[in-house]
Amino acid sequence: MTGEAKLIVQGLSHHYPDEYTGESVHALDNIDLKIYENEFVAIVGPSGCGKTTFLNIIAGLLPYREGRAMVDGVDIKGPGPDRGVVFQEHAILPWRTVSRNIGHGLELRRTPKAETQRRVQEYVDLVGLSGFEDRYPHELSGGMKQRVAVARTLCADPVIMLMDEPFAAVDAQTRITLQDELNRVVMATEKTILFITHSVEEAAFLGDRCIVFSRRPGRIKSEIKIDIPRAERQWKDMVNNSKFTDARDEILGLVRSEVTSNDDG
Amino acid sequence: MTALTDFSISIQRRFGRQRLRKFILGLIPFALLIGLWELNTAFVWFDPVEIPPIADVWEAIFWLQSDCPGFMAAVDGHNSCQLSNNILSSIGRVILATVVGVPLGIGFGILAGMNRTISAYLEPIGVFMNSVSGIAWIPLAVVWFGVGWETTLFIMLNTIFWLLFFNTMMGVRAVPKVLVQGVQTLGGSHLDAIRQVYLPGAMPSIITGGRMAMGFGWRALIAAEMIGGDSGLGFMIFVSASEFKTEEVFLGVILISIIFLATDRWILVPLEKWTIERWGLVWKPT
Ligand SMILES: Nc1ncnc2c1ncn2[C@@H]1O[C@H](COP(=O)(O)OP(=O)(O)OP(=O)(O)O)[C@@H](O)[C@H]1O
Ligand SMILES: [Mg+2]
Fold first, then answer.
1. pLDDT tens digits for range A62-103
2. Residues with Cβ < 8 Å from B137, sequence gap 6 or more?
3. What secondary structure does DSSP assign to A139-180, as a single string?
4. Positions in chain B short of pLDDT 50
5. Cβ separation of A59 and B185 shorter than 8 Å?
6. Do B185 and A89 touch (CB under 8 A)?
7. Which pLDDT value is given to residue B9?
8. SS3 B190
9. Residue having the nearest C-alpha atom to atom 2 of ligand 1
10. Buried b / exposed e across B110-140, counting CB within 10 Å, b at 16+?
11. pTM above 0.80, yes or no
């Protein structure tokens, strides 16, 4: 990848203190990672290996002491609008309509009304929610709520978008649709994305690069490049795409070996 | 078309069939009560001093207001407008206690809900205060403030504050953390989080607290007016009863329920519709 690194992580480790035993849980170990502009990086790894911990540190929601993490050359200290997060659960506000949720970031930044309205409409259309602008979240399906969450984060125009298993809570059919849509959206917005998932297929389908974490404490076990142009990434074509199936199988093997060695240990 | 069917059609349009049915069923016990009351007037099972005729209760409105020079004088609180003065002074204290007690209770509740140290200070005393019935403070309040508006206001404020404090605190704690994190990662400050997440998120609990505060506070106020007040509907009932003017007592009791129902229907219910129902935060039977 050419271009500048948007996210730089150097020697990042994390220990959770355990209030009861006094021992600490070693969640992350010596992570080095760079994510470049307009790159889509997917992280997979066994359950409990520290993926969410990693994302929360980058998001600024979890303080860290060991190692460095920088966005655009600035050390991460607390949450900020330069790092937008799409959470797994529905984190959009039930008391705001679709358009007010999507425009929330701009509102917090005191963007002029007309400008906000224009941008919100753009993202409403982009994620296919036209006609639902004035609905409240409880009137939407799970998939639509996640579309709102994605649009809300994009509309605030972050330097990097962090996504923690954003499609894990929707049904399989909706998930495929959302993955196709995310691809289209990424192509249209040229965003830099860090995407965490349990699903090897999802990682291979979406990522330009896929990082495989070892079991806890999470280390970077390996890195696989998936060299498929965005425009060619559509589920209907993927079954016959050997680049995709090869990458998927390779990642699957790596993750499997982690899970198995977990059982041995 | 007769006036009556016109009326029932207009009600039907406003409420819908189901609601109309519910409304009518709810009226039946009242109708029975009024029927029995009328029968008592005819057969005199109870002495009129014990249960006065409806007509006398109605008349009481006029004799209590008989010296009142007119509507503007009543609004002004003219000395001789007895009934309206007592109504206004009760309502005035409800409003004053609400205007002061509700924001204070919500404010401290939000602080305690967000901050563990603050709640470590305030939660135990909150539990204590809410377990002591509001009216238990009346004798002490009379010692502190004497007989008058200070005592009644204190009693109501004390009741309202702790209920709102406690319910708001619980409501804030129940707000999913991820909602706050969402706003923080969009660039929101602590103040933004309070205004846009904690406050609306705690709304179901705050409205419950408001309902309880209205119920307990209004009752406490009437009791306080009886024992430690020199005006208000509670005071009026108490004085009238000691002079065996039962019509006035009945009138007072009926007015108290009407005012209470009105605050619920016209303030709390619309607030609930406008907020938590619209946001899908209440479970609605369908
Ligand atoms: N607040 C915490 N305090 C103590 N330990 C924690 C805390 N949060 C997570 N852990 C531990 O740290 C490890 C990593 O957790 P994390 O949530 O980052 O895993 P994950 O890779 O996201 O898992 P999953 O795939 O199941 O979401 C786990 O062993 C977990 O038990
Ligand atoms: Mg996780």
1. 999 999 999 999 999 999 999 999 998 778 999 999 999 999
2. B154, B155, B158
3. GS-HHHHHHHHHHHHHHT--SEEEEESTTTTS-HHHHHHHHH
4. 1
5. yes
6. no
7. 67
8. helix
9. A16
10. bbbbbeeeebeebbeebeebbeeebbebbee
11. yes
